[in-house]
Amino acid sequence: MLRAATALALVLLLVPRARATIVEAYDLARLKESAARVALVRAGTPTVRQDARGRRITDVPLEVEEAIVGAPDAFVLTVFGGQQDGVGMVTAGEPVLREGRRYVVFARAWQDDGVERFRPVGMSQGVLEIRGAGGRATVLPGGAGLTLVPSPDDPLRAAEPALRAAEDLDGFLVRLRALP
User: For residue 131, which of 160, 100, 95, 162 has the smallest C-alpha distance?
Assistant: First the structure.
C-alpha cells in the first residue's frame, strides 16, 4: 500500500500543471457586440482586494482616451488574481494590465458584492495591449493564457483569436468602428 501511495505521489509531482484555460474564441464582431464598454484606455494604478468568496481580485482604473461603445468616462476593470499581504492568486487566461500602458478594452457589466463593475469579455481576449513600433502604435493580439476553441461542444479543435497578429492601431480602430 505504501508503494502504491509513493508511486501515485511521484506521478502527481511529474504531471505538468495546467497553464491555460479553455474558452470559446470570440471574433472581433462578437467581442464588440458582447461589450457594454469598448474603449482605447490607459491603465491606472491597480489595487488588489479580497472578495466575499475569498478570491484575490485586482481592480484597474482605466482612463478613457476614446470611447467606441458606451460612456466616455473612466471606469474600473476587475480581473481575477493578484497579490495582497504576501498571498497571491493567478487565474490562467486573465489579463494583467500594467500601470501607464495603453489598451483597447472590451468590457461587460458584472455584479460583484452588490456593486456594478466591469470584466473583460472573453477573459484576456477582451484586452488588447497597444505598443509603439517603428514610431507607430500597434495593437497586439489578446488571449494570453487561453486555449481557444470554436465552441464548448467542440473543445478538441483549436480556434483563431480575434486578432491573429499585431496590427496598426489606426487601421484597427477604423475596422472596429465599422462593425455593427
Answer: 100
Contact 57, 49 (CB under 8 A): yes
How far apart (Å, rounded) are the C-alpha atoms in residues 87 and 83? Answer: 5
- 10 Å CB burial of residue 128 (0-12, 13-18, 19+) is buried
Q: β-strands 127-133, 136-139: how paired?
A: antiparallel
pLDDT in tens, 63-94: 999 999 999 899 999 999 988 888 788 888 99
Task: Provide the residue type at 23 as one letter.
Answer: V
Rounded to whole angstroms, the Cα distance separating 10 from 4 reads 10
Q: How far apart are CA 151 and CA 118, in angstroms?
A: 24
Indicate the DSSP class of residue 141: P
pTM over 0.70: yes
pLDDT in tens, 86-135: 878 888 899 999 999 999 999 999 887 777 889 999 999 999 999 986 67
Length of the chain: 180
